[in-house]
Amino acid sequence: MRHLNYIKNHRKVLYHTLLTSCELNTHLHEVDIRAEEMYDRLVNQLKEQQGITEQLKTDDMLAWVQSMNNITNQAREIVNNEVIYSI
Q: 56-81: per-residue pLDDT in tens?
């Protein structure tokens, strides 16, 4: 939905081209798949880089939650900039 709103408001020619050629849903689906895959990959990479493990979750739940919130926010920001709000 964020990508749809983005192309509607900022890439009007692309939006109308996709809409009239009946490729809008396909395009949105492809963007969604790319975004989900990138997000999952980034979260796993960031967890590994920062040493966030299940052991930390067991030992210090609050630190694990804080770390995971930071990681998910970083991954979401990267996905937004590289996939959702770009063409």
A: 888 999 999 999 999 999 999 999 99
